[in-house]
Amino acid sequence: MEFTTLLEGIVARMRTAPDKGRVADYIPELASVDPDQFGIALALADGRFFAAGDADTAFSIQSVSKVFTLALALGRLGDGLWHRVGREPSGLPFNSILQLEHEKGIPRNPFINAGALVVTDAILAGHQPREVLGEILRFVRAAADDEHIHIDEAVARSETDHGHRNMALAYFLAAHGNFVNSPELTCGTYFHQCAIEMTVRQLAMAGRFLVGGPGKPNLISRDSVRRINALMLTCGHYDGSGDFAYRVGLPGKSGVGGGILVIAPGRASIAVWSPGLNQHGNSALGTLAVEHLARETGWSIFG
Amino acid sequence: MEFTTLLEGIVARMRTAPDKGRVADYIPELASVDPDQFGIALALADGRFFAAGDADTAFSIQSVSKVFTLALALGRLGDGLWHRVGREPSGLPFNSILQLEHEKGIPRNPFINAGALVVTDAILAGHQPREVLGEILRFVRAAADDEHIHIDEAVARSETDHGHRNMALAYFLAAHGNFVNSPELTCGTYFHQCAIEMTVRQLAMAGRFLVGGPGKPNLISRDSVRRINALMLTCGHYDGSGDFAYRVGLPGKSGVGGGILVIAPGRASIAVWSPGLNQHGNSALGTLAVEHLARETGWSIFG
Amino acid sequence: MEFTTLLEGIVARMRTAPDKGRVADYIPELASVDPDQFGIALALADGRFFAAGDADTAFSIQSVSKVFTLALALGRLGDGLWHRVGREPSGLPFNSILQLEHEKGIPRNPFINAGALVVTDAILAGHQPREVLGEILRFVRAAADDEHIHIDEAVARSETDHGHRNMALAYFLAAHGNFVNSPELTCGTYFHQCAIEMTVRQLAMAGRFLVGGPGKPNLISRDSVRRINALMLTCGHYDGSGDFAYRVGLPGKSGVGGGILVIAPGRASIAVWSPGLNQHGNSALGTLAVEHLARETGWSIFG
Amino acid sequence: MEFTTLLEGIVARMRTAPDKGRVADYIPELASVDPDQFGIALALADGRFFAAGDADTAFSIQSVSKVFTLALALGRLGDGLWHRVGREPSGLPFNSILQLEHEKGIPRNPFINAGALVVTDAILAGHQPREVLGEILRFVRAAADDEHIHIDEAVARSETDHGHRNMALAYFLAAHGNFVNSPELTCGTYFHQCAIEMTVRQLAMAGRFLVGGPGKPNLISRDSVRRINALMLTCGHYDGSGDFAYRVGLPGKSGVGGGILVIAPGRASIAVWSPGLNQHGNSALGTLAVEHLARETGWSIFG
């Protein structure tokens, strides 16, 4: 297969796609992003690398960061993490507080906001946010083999100013005794991790540790790789996870910045970015593009 | 790998497992099943076949039948089916009526009871239950290459007598205009499809059409194979689906009779049976056994 | 106070009211009712009686019948009834199935549909529907001192044909063991009790047993009078009960036929009817009219 | 009727009551209160006053304060308040966050915590907490005709330290745009208002403005009196409101400190206190005592 042609074809298709979705507008820094951008990158298990479109424009990775903090937390806490957060799809939007009330402060999974806050809270655990953010950045840089990845401070500040709902989730978790640090401290850390900026090139490189196989960054155990992929498949797109599994057939994690990291186990790490979101809060063109890529390559994990 | 040894080892392990779960007791026919039974069978993509334990004892496949009716419905209605039922995990028990009310009578997915009733209702669509049950049986027999598969009438009658909750779901769907036939007729058909009796040998054979690859029964398109596997992965174990994906890493569909059909795409169809259920209503030993099998074979779809 | 003038004034006001609501349309018999009708009647504790507007037109009392069956059930079962149904406002629409699932088949109160089905089921308790309907009619006729009150069979048949949601509730209650008779039998009885036809004259007369004081029909104990009035106040208008209490300040029970029975304890029984409904399913003009009446008479129970 | 004998009789009965409930233990200041205390006071509309038991021991009025802030807010904002908070019973515990999510940040009523936070936020509206707390105290002191009522600072501080759930509600309201001040500021004010200390003597005096009739403190309009009483009846005891209305038949507002203010419109203001709470968070003996009082006096508003 000629990957260059494939990616260029996808970029061309996306240019003329009828519905580019709506850019997230809850903070000015995201609302002002040009919606007509699209980039895609592919890091193959054999070491080859391909990219097309706006592959060198940095964007806010937002919830894609939850994959990296989960990897860190599993490495540090092991299965102990699962006392504080579940592994089931929630069937509800990313920021829902409903299930938390029914289930006594145990979030359904580590990829909804409440669960990701617990994961960050677990990593923070008495340390300074600065230290922990340094550790997260080191992990991402090592995964991507790129020292230039950093946090966009303006986005982080803006998240803090508009993060009332996440603060509500954090206080709710604290009220149920499922929080170690103060809501302000953990949310502050969380808002910064979400504000990490990356290009699709960097993100595809950073995803290689989840592809498995020889020569990949050996950051976590093979068991952890499988488990994170399983969680990405069942929970990575909130209440659009089942649809993504049905249409694409690969584990993925999206962010409201419009990025998606997709893993074809044993084959490739794929990053795609386009700022417009569909009704579930996942990149509209990004989803379409990886659906096309999966069909053309036959990389579905489902046969 | 020596599959005979592997399966015999699993059977031996399961004999001494500390917690065999609780046998379903909502109908006398299931409640009276001996809990100390365990069978496992493996139909490899290359045509080899292995079985161990109580592999020749027939059991009620119950919700595993939903896989076969979904395959039939997709073949007949194509994507039109998705106007009547969703593709998302529900995050709720198998027989919940909650989401139906919030979502105006569109069940979350075809594997919760409400969704399976819609699928059966769609296949029935004005035909006689007898005809449609004949069609379902022909499909299962063709898949298994076995003419001896039949319906246990005593179980079907007992389901009918105790099926108040499914009748409630059916009337609720009817109230929302998402039912073509009378609740009595569709539920009657559904109770019979759930009462199909099979051994793990027969079930493993019947699952081969979802394995893909050459030489398999070509009952549905490759796209449909992938999609059904995706739905089994995200929704096949109700509110235990995420946990099954995490621990086993393979698509599967369970039934309250204690059977589970598990697919290793491109590799094997696996059937396991043990009547005791865990808290999510899935076979306790069955889940444990396929978790062990997946770890030993490395067949996870997640890397 | 000159009640004739007051009622005529209310009738005149209602004629020019800007929003008459929407007539219930789930069965043809209700949908075809002329929305421009309005009647009001007042049976004072001292025996005087006043009426104005369309006071001699019979309408379907629908859920107002729940007051009479509750009175019958309390008389027969006493506090034992409260093992099967609660006494709390539900905060949800009249036909919701949500709380039933959370609360194991115990409806919140006897005035939501699920609760009223339990009440009718309790009265039925092995008897023939025909007998029990005779008993309900005898109670209503005795209360109203009027032998001409009867059931509209066409409405009852139509309810049966369109009663899927109530059938769903009944099967759900049966699934939780909170049903004595078959869902078909209890629902059949319930659909007939809802199809009782009355004029506002008859309904105001029939409500006198809840006014208390000397000379009223002595059908139930004073304790039961107080308790039924309390339930009407807190639960009589579904998720519009709080608003009715705030605006009118009197216990009342509405029906989708557009009738409302309102009690001013110690003072009067008030019946009002206008077929157009507001967003909570209660008569739009009826609510407005009794709000006006309560303000003019100062009959609020709240000071 | 001889009220002295009546109240003494109630005190004697309560001493031997088998179940005194459980003292609230979420803050140390409440947890350490002696559970064997019981006081009752009665301010009649004709000016007479009676008290018995521990009538001179001050307790934390907690949610009873919501009655006073609602009166203040209605006086200042009038019906505009109802754009920000509803008037329906919630059918859920006092601190539930569920309905907030379904209903876009509009709390069901002003007596659940979320609604009371909105009321306090509306009074605060840009002012300093100190000023507003002064205004609340002036209102309560004027109502009680007693300058000695004050805030227990130790309780207020402790509430602040343990108020995670209220902070969660406040941030959630802020996220929905239904908050004017910062969550910290409004919650701080709210925690102080809840920490007002009163005896049952003072509380019964302070409730007279809701009794109506000549010679009462004329702090709000008669319409507002009726409306606050209606809200107390339908929503004053959280998900135990229907039961209180059924058993007692009078408007009331409880607090987790064990106090209840009960209004017999036109007749009396009643205050009762005992620290042990029932399963709905309302004073166990307090509820029992007013049920007894209502039965003996025949003061039910329901006939």
From TrEMBL, chains A, B, C, D:
InterPro entries: Beta-lactam/transpept-like, Glutaminase
Residues binding substrate: S63, N113, E159, N166, Y190, Y238, V256
Keywords: Acetylation, Hydrolase
SUPFAM superfamilies to which the protein is assigned, alphabetical: beta-lactamase/transpeptidase-like
E.C. no: 3.5.1.2
GO molecular function terms attached to this record: glutaminase activity
Entry coiled-coil feature ranges: none
Catalytic activity: L-glutamine + H2O = L-glutamate + NH4(+)
Keyword Hydrolase part of the UniProt annotation: yes
Family label: Belongs to the glutaminase family.
NCBIfam families: Gln_ase, PRK00971.1-2
Subunit structure: Homotetramer.
HAMAP family from the UniProt entry: Glutaminase (MF_00313)
Protein name listed in UniProt: Glutaminase
